[in-house]
Amino acid sequence: MGVVYQPIADELRSVDARLHLELQSRYEALRPVLQHGTQLGGKRLRPALLLLSGIACDPARRSTNLTDDHIVMASVVEMVHTATLIHDDVLDKASTRRHVPTINARWNDDTSILLGDYLFAQSFYLAATLPSTLACRWVGQAAQAVCEGELRQVLGRDWLDIDEETYLDMIRGKTAELTRVSCQLGAQLSGADQVTVEAFGKYGNDLGIAFQIADDFLDLWGDDAEIGKTLGTDLQQGKITLPLIRLLRHDDPKIAHKAIEALRAKPAERLERIRPLLRDSDAAEYTREVANRYRCDAIAAIDHLTPSAALRSLMMIADFSVDRRF
After folding, report:
1. Angle between helix 194-221 and 164-171 (nearest 10)
2. Count of alpha carbons within 13 angstroms of residue 59, beta-carbon side
3. Sign of the dihedral through C-alpha 272, 276, 277, 278
4. Average pLDDT of span 64-82
5. What are phi and psi of 266, to 5 degrees?
6. Distances (CA, A) of 33 to 41, 77, 96
7. Other C-beta atoms lying within 10 Å of the C-beta of residue 148
8. Whole-angstrom Cα distance, residue 58 to residue 70?
């Protein structure tokens, strides 16, 4: 990712500095929790998308089109993202993320929920410091969509009749909405015209969908040590993702029925029972195919723009979203 982020290396360091500045407390007992929370975001993907979009929308103005407002909003989207991760870890009962213990594992669920709330509150306060209210409104709407997507998935646990369209609509909210807004904000803050802002929004939306599909793939076929977080939690929590939707619609009714039985088993038994069925299906191939389709759509949304290092990085991120192993 160092190569991908090279065009914005200095700005990302500024984002990290801003995050550490914002996540301070006069209460000593809170400091270790806040500091630990800043480590969980990992790849800094959403701040990078915002900054790269801010450059790629008009590369001729490279020296002037990234401002402190970009740094502020890049910090905001990372705080919102981290808050959702911390809450996710409680829902999934996950013990590790990015090779470090989750907040709920190191402290407890109460601390996780409150820290997530703290990050949401701080992010909206920081967004409100910009002269225009547009950025704050966009981030607020994105956060609402993320929560709606998560709620729909929680309320739809063990929903074996879920179809692919509904699944895609859920992940459009829970993951793609924040990547979409990150890209749109970057272009908007750089003064891009409405057509260009919408092109970056299309890129961010399709990228987010591809990224989440790949995440769901890794939850079943990934390597815990390589990814650095607890895997198999979606299955245990009854979240029916694209590979499982494909398996449940297998051409052989016997395999589809066995899949239903496996998904109705005790949570701890589901992964062991479902894996041989997945191996005998095209679920992995199909999941990669759908993710790749959204990857291609993301690239197509911005490939007409003036070539630049930032645009190349956005293309590389689209490739990484599907090809990654972590």
Report:
1. 110
2. 13
3. positive
4. 91
5. -60, 145
6. 14, 20, 15
7. 14
8. 14
CA-closest candidate to residue 178, choices 217, 220, 149: 149
- Average pLDDT estimate for 78-106: 85
Tokens 């996950």: give the residue: 94
Q: Which residues pair with 100 in a beta bridge?
A: 97
Q: How many CA atoms lie within 13 A of 81 on its CB side?
A: 28
Residue with tokens 């991908």, as numbered in its chain: 4
Instruction: Give the DSSP H/E element, type plus range, for residue 266.
Output: none
What would the two tokens of residue 178 be?
A: 């924040």
Residue with tokens 């790749």: 292
DSSP E strands in 48-202: the ranges are: 96-97, 100-101
| Number of residues that this document lists for the chain | 326
Gyration radius (Cα) of the chain, Å:
20
End-to-end alpha carbon distance in the chain: 12
pTM check: above 0.85:
yes
Q: Other CB atoms closer than 10 Å to residue 94's CB: what's the count?
A: 19
- Minimal CA–CA distance to 196: which of 205, 206, 188, 208? 188
Dihedrals phi, psi of 145, to nearest 5 degrees: -65, -40
Query: What are the structure tokens assigned to 165, written together?
Result: 């369209």
Cα separation, 251 vs 50, whole angstroms: 43
Q: What are phi and psi of 161, to 5 degrees?
A: -95, 5
Q: Which amino acid is at 265?
A: A
Query: Could you count the other beta carbons within 10 Å of the beta carbon of residue 162?
Result: 19
Task: At 163, list the tokens.
Answer: 């179809």
294 three-state secondary structure: helix
Q: What is the mean pLDDT of residues 159-174?
A: 95
| Residue-wise pLDDT tens digits, 8-23 | 999 999 999 999 888 8
Q: Which residue has the tokens 């990050």?
A: 119
Contact (Cβ atoms closer than 8 angstroms) between residue 104 and residue 53: no
Burial of 282 (0-12, 13-18, 19+ CB in 10 A): middle
Residue reference for tokens 């095209």:
282
